[in-house]
Amino acid sequence: MSFLLGIAGVAVGAVLQFWFNVLLEEHKKKDQRALDDKRKVLLRSALENMPADAEWRKLTTLCGIIGAEPRETTRLLIELGARGSESDEDVWALLSDKPLKRM
């Protein structure tokens, strides 16, 4: 009898741990989405408010503004509707401001 109770306890514990992990992952994803949204607001502001003598923003500058690594910053820029330059490396602008030219 105690053997069956032990097995039942293990099974219940495993199910509870599984659901705890699922809820924890959902919470982490929600936090990441909220952070991404805040970062996109900052990126959009940086790209819409360029210095008078600039048409592009450096990726390093954008990374510093939002506190993210280049890979993460690039992902957010693409989601935002920005693009990199075809001729200059590591500079970005909104696609609406710098549309790709037809060939």
Please write out the topology.
Blueprint: H1 2-48, E1 57-58, H2 59-66, H3 70-80, E2 82-84, E3 91-94
Antiparallel strand pairs: 1-3, 2-3
Helix pairs in contact: 1-3
Provide a descriptive summary of the structure in words.
- There is one protein chain.
- With 103 residues, the chain is mainly alpha-helical.
- Helices cover 64% and strands 9% of the residues.
- It has one domain (2-94): Arc Repressor Mutant, subunit A (Orthogonal Bundle).
- It has helices at 2-48, 59-66, 70-80; strands at 57-58, 82-84, 91-94.
- Strand 2 (82-84) and strand 3 form a beta hairpin.
The value of Rg in angstroms is: 23 Å
The CATH architecture name reads: Orthogonal Bundle
**Largest sheet: spatial strand order:** 1-3-2
**Helix content range:** 55-70%
User: Structural class of the secondary elements?
Assistant: mainly alpha
Q: How can the largest sheet be summarized?
A: 3 strands, antiparallel
Q: Which stretches are poorly predicted, pLDDT < 50 over at least 5 residues? A: none
Strand content: 5-15%
Average per-residue pLDDT, rounded, comes to 89
Outline type: rod-shaped
Would you summarize the structure shown here?
The chain is mainly alpha-helical. Helices cover 64% and strands 9% of the residues.
Which short descriptors sum up this protein?
103 residues, mainly alpha, Arc Repressor Mutant, subunit A, 3-stranded antiparallel β-sheet, 3 helices, 3 strands, rod-shaped
